[in-house]
Amino acid sequence: MGVTRRPLPGGAEAIRLALPSGASVTVLSIGATLHRIETPDRHGHLANILLSHDDPAAHLAGRSLLGASIGRYANRIANARFVLEGRTVLLDANDGANTLHGGAEGFDRRIWTVLEVQEHPLSLTLGLHSPDGDQGFPGALNATARFDLSEDAQGITLSLRYGAVCDRPCPVSLTSHGYFNLAGGGSVLDHRLSIAAGHYLPIRADGIPDGPPRPVSGTPFDFRVAKPVRQDIAAAWLAAQGGYDHNFCPDPADGTPRPVARLSDPGSGRAMTVISDQPGLQLYTANRPPLPGLQAHCALCLEPQAWPDAPNRADFPGTILHPGARYRHRLALRFTTG
After folding, report:
1. Any catalytic annotation for residue 119?
2. With bands split at pLDDT 50, 70 and 90, how would you rate the model's confidence at 117?
3. From 35, 177, 191, 297, the catalytic residue
4. Can the peptide bond before residue 121 be classed as cis, meaning omega within 30 degrees of 0?
5. Catalytic residue among 13, 101, 303, 329
6. 303 flagged as catalytic
7. Among 220, 255, 261, 296, which has the highest number of CB atoms less than 10 A from its own CB?
8. CA dist 334 → 78, 123, 155, 259 (Å)
9. Could you tell me if 204 and 95 are in contact, meaning their C-beta atoms sit under 8 angstroms apart?
10. Element at 59 (helix H, strand E)
């Protein structure tokens, strides 16, 4: 139980938060990255349920996004540009013509500063300064990521709280990019998934939203009742991406935290409920293996965030953070067994 800190190359650290039950979370200051989440199965056996590099320093050697905190803007911005207050802002184009996850050198590629570590309750806060013009984004921005780990009769809860302030107007959307496999290995196609969303965003082949939200009814995007991930993953609707890589619009979108998704593994008995206050939830089924030697659909991501390309879409929920205001994202992962 408690906190263990281990130095990493380049002045980074690995910080492990451990509960009396043995469940634990390890966070890297490289990218404010969730490196390991060890939770019990129905028999009490612990396993890591996150895809992760064996060597934490690999996060700096290449870009995998495994478990990293994403910023300044999660997901895609079309044509690597947007217009703000009458001025065209040009961003780093790192996904064809578009910007993906903040540009080639997004927040996942930085070493965050350890601001605070607590043992009672278990908590870790990291901070990052992003200068004016970082990947093209306007204004200086200071971001924080706080990780809290707790346990009670309802299960194990990992809470993440993202915050940011800026000195010029700028779009902001931060999220955690964990690749989850509740079995601890193999495929996630037999995991069962539910998403509390009556609408999703259709996309072009390059992942940019194509039109307004559409009802999930009668489509492969209907996860309102839990179903195996494999059930509709081969549908023609998903052929361009090789699986799911879509934003869902969870209900209600009133800015209060609510359960937006539940993932379960029948074999191990592990289940994970995602609770968020964000208007969107990106489902990505690892259609391209994130690490050598792995197969497609070896994990999946459930990323609460703003809607993709919202800086270019006046009809989407707004994402502009103004000086004097504070960006907040409250996210919790609740782990149970059954």
Report:
1. no
2. very high
3. 177
4. yes
5. 303
6. yes
7. 261
8. 34, 16, 7, 10
9. no
10. helix 58-61
